[in-house]
Write a structure and sequence with these properties.
Largest sheet: 7 strands, antiparallel
Radius of gyration: 22 Å
Structural class: mainly beta
Number of helices: 1
Strand order of the largest sheet: 4-3-2-1-7-6-5
Helix content: under 10%
Mean pLDDT: 86
Distance between the termini: 30 Å
Low-confidence stretches: 1-16
Shape: elongated
């Protein structure tokens, strides 16, 4: 019985698969950045701030309590590679990179207006429509068959 338990434990750990996933999205002037995956999960928007002397600065801050709806998606590029098949190895690595165009519509989850000093905010202050590019990177260790 101990031998069977040991064999099951060893087979479980030797077939474990490490993986990684991250998507980074940004509009052309980087005033809106959306990150999701294993490294970061947040929406950063740029705020226009004016100090007491009238000097203007632009500060990126995390936006919370938001909803967003993807209005349009267009696949631009998909690239994938695998080390399986390049040798007689039993384990390999696969990796993939996807590039997409997305148009998204961002609103407040509470139904209220968004902060008024967000760069690119709609005239009524309730939404932000953003065109951005998203790059998704994935990789994983796999058993080669």
């Amino acid at each position: 019985m101990k031998l069977l338990a040991s064999l099951l434990l060893v087979s479980t750990f030797t077939s474990a698969h490490a993986s990684f996933f991250q998507t980074n999205c940004s509009n052309p002037d980087a005033t809106v950045v959306y990150l999701t995956g294993q490294v970061a999960n947040k929406l950063l928007v740029t705020f226009k701030e004016v100090n007491g002397t009238g000097a203007v600065s632009f500060v990126k801050k995390e936006l919370t309590n938001f909803d967003f709806k993807v209005l349009k998606t267009k696949n631009i590029e998909n690239v994938s590679e695998s080390t399986c098949g390049t040798s007689n190895a039993t384990h390999g690595v696969i990796s993939a990179r996807d590039l997409e165009f997305k148009r998204v519509f961002i609103t407040s989850r509470t139904g209220r207006s968004l902060p008024k000093n967000i760069v690119g905010l709609s005239a009524d202050g309730t939404s932000l429509t953003v065109d951005y590019l998203c790059e998704t990177n994935r990789n994983a260790q796999v058993l080669c068959q």
